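Closing statement on the nicotinamide-adenine-dinucleotide sub-project.
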Amino acid sequence: MPTTTMLKYPEVKNYINGKFEPTYQKTLDVICPLDGNVISTVPLSSAADLDKAVQAAKTAFTTWSKTPIKDRVQIFYRYKTLLEKNLRELAHLVHIENGKTLDEATAEVEKCIELTEFACSMPQLVQGELMEVSKGVECRTERMPIGVVASIVPFNFPVMVPHWTVPNAIALGNCVILKASEQVPLGANRMAELLKEAGLPDGVFNVINGDKDIVEAICDHPGIEAVTFVGSTKVAKIVYRRATSNLKRCVALGGAKNHLIVLPDAHPDMTASNVAASMSGCAGQRCMAASVMVGVSNVDHIVAKLCEEAKKIVPGKNLGSVISKQAKERIEKYITEAEQKGAKVLVDGRNYKVEGKENGFYVGPTVIDYVSPDMAIAKEEVFGPVIAIVRTKTLDEAIAVENASEYGNAASVFTQSGGLARLVMEKASAGMIGVNIGVPVPREPFSFGGWNESKFGTCDITGKSSIEFLTQLKKTTTKWNAEAKTNWMS
Ligand code: NAD
């Protein structure tokens, strides 16, 4: 176990009631995937640590929930300016702890700014409703906060995924406990510092670190009203079942297997560059990444261009690392198994070493053709810079391949035919659809969330849909008409 003096970053701490907590007995190393070096340690918190955070959040809630929304969002106007001011430093942190390129990390922080802007618009979105429903009798609705909301996040977007929940939940009057990913916990501590600098009262935002045990404690804690989860489908199911069985609200986003259907009339250059960027961005570790390209009829000319594009993507230059040694081994195993079963590896990213960073976890871009839909690489989440090409004769067959996936995060079609694009828009079984776009992420105020095994729960996690999840409606009926003869409610 390294001592703190050897670490590149100070040890990660829990942040409770506006203070970083003292050192912990049980910790894990935080490893920089770019070079395999230990850069910090992260505490493995106990249920007692969580309880302390919940009590702080509950106490803060009594005042924060009664603070007018127009005052609450002032914090986020200031926080947005702080994110802009600290953009480079935050991006560097994300680059080091996650392994994505500095450009990708910069884009991630820019997305945090957009999410914060949306939170600033809450006063315009949550005005209540009022109607005189009969003479002198008025019904009104108000969106009230729900209490303490926990947000459990994955490794692939250390700061962006926390921003899916934190600004909206807090602007709407809730208090938040963020459970950072133990693989990339540094960004959450920096968020805490910046929110404090923006003027957020103590206890409104808390960070708790740990692994499986603390996630289970969150699902069980009676002081937590709602849980947002983002991660793999396996864990999303565990969290959704456990949190809802404890009578909490829960939205749990899971894994993905996104299909891009490519028709022969698609624009070859645009399609090839979009598919290559979608499958390799953030080293393929995006839940919106292209994973299967379904090539309809003869798309050889597009596949050839895709290979040219893939060869321009170089680990250590314009391609980051994957998160861990285990991830690298898993990804390479999928490629090898598919090859052994008859698929053809056109561009091979296995066994990649970056000079000077030999202990980093790199996988080069991989294009693998003639994959059959029943191979593991076509069905399971690979989560690496790999595109499996499945060939079909017709568009109907291609749609059937997409529909057969147990996931349903995103699906895209590349074509110049509006009618065929419309057919895919109608028939694809996914929550987020793209036409001639490789990463169809809906931007605020539109909401983010998949279908099928990519999401459990009724609301989406961001945008307007998140308002429903993060608030409860108070319905008030008043009668201020002493003379009214109609008195149907009394
Ligand atoms: P993960 O499921 O392993 O971990 C997510 C969180 O759950 C972490 O905070 C972790 O500490 C906790 N956890 C891990 N195992 C647990 C267990 N057995 N019980 C309780 N908690 C547990 O996911 P990851 O590897 O960090 O992230 C990658 C996954 O996240 C991919 O599957 C990716 O598709 C998915 N993801 C989905 C979306 C989406 O919007 N659908 C977005 C980002 C990432």
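Residues 15-254+454-474 form a domain with the Aldehyde Dehydrogenase; Chain A, domain 1 fold (CATH 3.40.605.10). With this model delivered, the sub-project is considered complete and its resources will be redirected to Aim 3.
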